[in-house]
Design goal:
Number of helices: 11
Radius of gyration: 19 Å
Number of strands: 8
Shape: globular
Strand order of the largest sheet: 7-6-5-4-1-8
Oligomer: single chain
Helix content: 25-40%
Number of domains: 1
């Protein structure tokens, strides 16, 4: 566990890594992850928990948008009864922080039946999110403690998403899906959208997501925030971050706290080793 008593640990490593190498000579790391992911998508023996574990391990690749997201929370608990699959923290620039609460099903679960009606799995996911909404409305103070800066009434910055099925088992009902999305105010996407996200992602040495305040952060910190090899942060670790967050400041001032709890997948060490060998660092 990282030590919060040492405020200088985050800048003790002064090396700057070019994550942009993943756009060209380091593309093989992305291809490796995509190959493994595509095998997962075609394996009908896998359960939802398997997909959750994979996405949690590669959260910085699949679940975030380039230069708009910098952290993912896994299985955030809402009280004693409810639990999200993921929460993605998104940068809304002048509009502030956005939180996207995600429920995942299986790529093999069709979102709609042959008659165009929502499937049992989709209905179950929608009910899950309706339960989250009810809990949030009834427990606003507690919710604001686990997701600081959340707004619920005017100009809400809390969104909801369901990831279910594939493009193949959804394509005949896109119109129904879009209508259902509009009525429920829940975004519904297929697992292929996660593939598209990684395939189209652009990586940078330093993220472009920052406000004027955040641009004052040392380059070492900004470079570490741009590191895409991070895993989703577990509920218990995220709550430790929240207890340290200073609510009087913008979220940007608290970025160092996020880095304190970050963990990284096994590809990071391999990427750094090859980068150092290639560039002599």
């Amino acid at each position: 566990m990282k030590d919060f008593s040492d405020p200088n640990w985050i800048v003790s490593e002064d090396k700057i890594y070019d994550w942009g190498a993943l756009n060209n000579e380091g593309k093989k790391f992305i291809r490796k992850v995509l190959e493994e992911w595509n095998k997962f998508l075609t394996n009908k023996r896998l359960k939802e928990e398997d997909y959750h574990e994979f996405l949690s391990n590669y959260a910085g690749f699949f679940l975030t948008e380039s230069d708009k997201s910098y952290q993912v929370i896994s299985k955030l608990k809402l009280g004693a009864d409810y639990e999200t699959d993921f929460v993605v923290i998104c940068e809304g620039f002048s509009k502030g922080i956005f939180y996207e609460l995600i429920e995942i099903e299986s790529p093999h679960s069709k979102p709609f039946n042959k008659n165009g009606q929502p499937s049992h799995k989709l209905i179950h996911s929608v009910q899950q999110i309706m339960n989250w909404r009810s809990w949030i409305q009834d427990n606003r103070h507690e919710f604001s403690r686990v997701l600081p800066y959340a707004r619920l009434v005017r100009d809400s910055n809390v969104k909801f998403k369901i990831i279910i099925g594939t493009r193949e088992n959804s394509r005949d009902f896109i119109e129904e899906r879009n209508q259902y999305t509009h009525e429920m105010k829940i975004e519904i996407r297929s697992f292929d959208s996660l593939t598209d996200n990684l395939e189209g992602k652009t990586f940078h040495e330093s993220p472009w997501i920052f406000s004027a305040e955040a641009r004052q952060l040392p380059l070492q910190i900004r470079n570490k925030l741009a590191n895409p090899f991070y895993k989703a942060t577990k509920d218990a670790d995220w709550r430790k971050i929240c207890r340290k967050i200073e609510p009087r400041h913008s979220f940007a001032i608290n970025y160092e706290l996020i880095l304190w709890m970050r963990e990284y997948n096994d590809l990071l060490n391999r990427f750094i080793k090859q980068y150092r060998l290639k560039h002599g660092k």
